[in-house]
Design brief:
Keywords: ANK repeat, Repeat. ANK repeats lie at residues 84-116, 117-156, 157-192. InterPro entries: Ankyrin_rpt, Ankyrin_rpt-contain_sf. There is one protein chain. This protein has twelve helices and no strands. By secondary structure, the chain is mostly helical. The chain is elongated, with a radius of gyration of 19 Å. It has helices spanning 4-13, 26-29, 31-40, 55-61, 65-73, 88-94, 98-106, 121-127, 134-146, 161-166, 176-185, 213-231. Helix 4 (55-61) packs antiparallel against helix 5. The protein has two domains: 1-150, Serine Threonine Protein Phosphatase 5, Tetratricopeptide repeat; 151-228, Serine Threonine Protein Phosphatase 5, Tetratricopeptide repeat (Alpha Horseshoe).
């Protein structure tokens, strides 16, 4: 889970507020046994609150795999989107919840569901990669890519996953930017390594948000140079790049 201040920021900027009169989380916070009793008592597993939140969204947000499994076993709406287009998979990816991501994907979640800003879960997984969740979020990136997530997608602002990754934090546990470059982003047909968004900013312009600005700048520059060399026939493949940081 996020710390209080970051979660408050997240709720303000990304998620429309719940209709708390319905006390949606009350159905989840008591655990799976209480949820079962509620369902037996008439609670519908496909109920959606104002804003489009479902019980599955709440189970993901609470990191309650028991409730999540129960809801999926009873045909809960795993691809239901909120009014802002956010599915439970968006949330699981954002929080770096590897178990929830895998469970949702195994049950048929749409790996490239698009929110109202044009972002898929892969972008959400990258956008919250930081010093506290680095390893978990990179694992989520791998899970999503293995299920065929579109690494070359552009969101509504023309940004790619590399725009988001360029400004993320990294440490000895991993670097999301390097992971994406090594797993298809560098050679994508849309040339996303040098792609400009609607403000004419490339991923290289976004590195100032990272705690390793110089390393990320070099990483993008080295890969871009190597990719261009390969395309021009100067070399057959990208030579191994040093790991950053």
């Amino acid at each position: 889970m996020l710390g209080f201040e970051r979660e408050e920021w997240y709720m303000k900027h990304y998620i429309e507020p719940l209709d708390y009169s319905e006390r949606a989380y009350d159905f989840i916070e008591g655990g799976v046994e209480q949820l079962k009793r509620r369902v037996v008592g008439g609670l519908k597993v496909d109920w959606a609150w104002e804003g489009g939140w479902t019980l599955i969204h709440c189970a993901v947000n609470n990191d309650d795999m028991g409730c999540l499994q129960f809801l999926l076993d009873h045909n809960g709406p795993l691809n239901h989107a909120s009014k802002q287009g956010q599915t439970p998979l968006h949330w699981a990816a954002f929080f770096g919840n590897e178990k929830a991501v895998q469970l949702l994907l195994d049950n048929g979640a749409n790996v490239d569901a698009i929110d109202c800003h044009g972002r898929n879960p892969l972008m959400w997984a990258v956008s919250m990669t930081d010093m506290d969740s680095n390893e978990a979020n990179i694992s989520c990136l791998q899970q999503l890519l293995e299920k065929g997530s579109d690494i070359g997608l552009c969101d509504g602002s023309g940004r790619t996953v590399l725009h988001y990754a360029a400004g993320t934090q990294c440490d000895e546990r991993g670097c999301a930017l390097e992971f994406l470059l090594r797993n298809g982003a560098a050679y994508h047909i849309n040339n996303i390594i040098d792609k400009e968004d609607k403000d004419r900013l490339t991923p290289l312009c976004c590195v100032h948000r990272s705690n390793h600005e110089m390393e990320h700048s070099k990483l993008l520059t080295d890969w871009s140079t190597a990719v261009q060399a390969k395309k021009s026939g100067v070399q057959d493949e990208v030579s191994p790049m040093p790991r950053y940081p």
